[in-house]
Amino acid sequence: MSSHVPNRARVIPLRPAPAARERLWRDVVGDVLRRERMAQRRTLKDVADAARISMPYLSEVERGRKEASSEVLAAAARSLGLGLADVLSLAQRELARNSPAQRSAPARAPMGEVRLAA
Asked: Where are the domains of the chain?
């Protein structure tokens, strides 16, 4: 007699879909600074010199590798002809526009209008 082991199906649990990673503030601010610099067709060296910060440090800030102080951000903004509030406002708008909550939120109906979903 052979001992027969019944076939057992393996249950492989489904992994939940990875949550969209929310962008970090330093990444967004760096993108804003780089975009503004490129729009003005200025070099990293030119802006760093005008802001009196090292070129490698400004590069790290633009790439989101360094969390810049408000003094450094203000200096970089001034060297681009902007105020600190301008840079922060641009970054905030970009963060709000691209947040995972914003992308997955259902469209809101204006007050007084009713929408039914089937």
From this structure: 25-98
In order of 64, 78, 86, the CA distances from 21 in angstroms are 15, 31, 25
Helices (H), the chain: 25-39, 44-51, 55-62, 70-79, 84-97, 100-104
Per-residue CA distances from 46 to 36, 64, 80 (Å): 13, 19, 10
Q: State the chain's maximal CA–CA distance in angstroms.
A: 89
Instruction: Report the C-alpha gap between 86 and 33 in whole angstroms.
Output: 11
Residue pLDDT, tens place only, 19-78: 667 889 999 999 999 999 999 999 999 999 999 999 999 999 999 999 999 999 999 999
| 25-98: CATH superfamily | lambda repressor-like DNA-binding domains (1.10.260.40)
